[in-house]
Structure formats: structure tokens, C-alpha cells
Amino acid sequence: MSSDIQNCCDFSGDYKLSRLPLIKKLEQAALDSDYGGTSWTTRKQVDAIIESLALHSGSRLLDIGSGAGWPGLLLAKLSQCDVTLLDIPLNALQQAAERAGVDQITGQVDIVSASGTSLPFLDRSFDRISHSDVLCCLPEKFELLQETRRVARDDGRMHFSVILPATDLSQFEYDEVLETGPPFVGVDGNYADLLRESGWQLTECLDVTEKYRRSVQRLVEGIQANEDELIQLLGADDLASRRQHREDQIALIERGLMRRETYAATAI
To answer: Helix, strand or coil for residue 265?
Structure first.
């Protein structure tokens, strides 16, 4: 990942905040998780990922853009698979290592600081791959998918979620999504084609937009309910900006302009 993308998608400040009890409370309300997650994967969706990937003891899972370990650590804990967590921010990976100890799964977890577009692994190293809301935070979407195929075994499976513009938008509407959505929410073409061109066969695509909307709504409600404490923590201007940003995202979702989808694919 280039330095420009790191700067644009640098979650390091949020990872530091995520250790605080108040922020954990907000995350718990939004996602039913307290791992310090920066994706919108909920606790219930973790079960769906395990089923989609058929994770079990002996599976080798690569979780790209793992951050502080959500949802990769819980995937490993519940399925007993081995997981390699990969991301760039060192403070997030340190937090993931600490949580692996708390969850008593240190022996199942490897942690690597590297870019998802240049994976430091041999070909066919993993039989399962996951990434949660990563492709909407970097422009090199095809390059990442190519790399996942390179390191996947020939019977490999992949599951990912991504936020994206709805189809058939006007240019004005599309620009609204680019302005308010994740840093690189736009996509040339569609993910089914990107998967096929990078060596993956799409097996399932699910619309989870309403679940995403409810999670963002719960976060906004949590911000409102804890406004005084959050002002002390973040400052009034920062808090107002964060809340407005989430409210703008909810508005896009409710207007049908922005979606969240999950994809399952097998190596071909």
C-alpha cells in the first residue's frame, strides 16, 4: 500500500481510542464487539463467515486489513482455525496480539505487517482468505484480488464485505457517494468481473445494506447518548464532524445510493 493510501486510510488514531471504555461501549452497541474493529462486520455476521468459508481446525486463514483483530481473531477462536492477521499499522497489530492472549489463542495466530497488494507469502500458502470492508479503502482493488489468488490454494475459498455505490446512479449521485463514503468506495466495473479476471469464481453475493444501516444508526444513537463524555474526549468540533459524517452516510443508504455487500468465491 502506498504512503498516500496509508495516510488516507490511517486508522491509528481510532485504534488508540478503541482501547477506551467509552469507545468500547459504542462499538458494542453498533457491532456487538469490543475488539476495536474498523469494519462494519457484526458478531452475527462472524458466524456467517465461518459457515461460508467452512472454517475448522486445520484451516489456514489469511485475514487482510485485520486491524486490531476484528473479525479475524473471533473467526479463529470460534472455528479453531489458524489465522494470519495482516495489516500495516503496528499499533493495531500490537493490540491484536494482546487480544489474542486474552482470548487464549496465541498459538493459532500469526501477525504480519505488510500491504495486501504485495503479500509476503509463497504461492498457495492459504486455503481460506477474508477481508472486511478493505477494498473500499484502497484503489488497487484488482491488485489485491490478484494477490489473494496467488497465495490461495487451488481449492481455496475467499469471503469479503465491501461498501460500494449502488448501480445506475446519475453522475451527481455517484459523486455524492464518493464524497461521503469510504476513501475509495468507487469501483470500475463490478466485483463479480474483478473476481473472475483475478482468478476467482463468484459463488454468492448478499446484500447486507440494511444491517449496515442499522449498525451505523446504533453508532449515531450511542454518540448522542454519550455526547457530554465524548465532547470531553474528542472536543465539540471533532465530535460534531464525526456524527455528521455518519448521519450523511445513513442518508445515502436510505436514498438507495450506497450499499454494503458480502461476496463468497472459490479459486479457479
So the answer is: strand
In-domain check, residue 178: no
Q: For the stretch 232-244, what's the b/e string if a residue is b when 16 or more beta carbons lie within 10 angstroms of its beta carbon? A: eebeeeebeeebe
**Band of pLDDT at residue 13, cut at 50, 70 and 90:** low
Average pLDDT, rounded, for the chain: 94
**Residue 224 lies inside a defined structural domain of this protein:** no
Contacts of residue 48, defined as CB under 8 A and 6 or more positions apart, other chains included, come to 262
Residue with grid cell 473467526, as numbered in its chain:
75
Distance (Å, whole) CA 128 – CA 36: 23
Q: How many domains does the chain have?
A: 1
Q: What is the pLDDT of residue 4?
A: 36
Strand 200-207 relative to strand 258-267, pairing: antiparallel
Task: Count H helices and E strands in the chain, helices first.
Answer: 12, 7
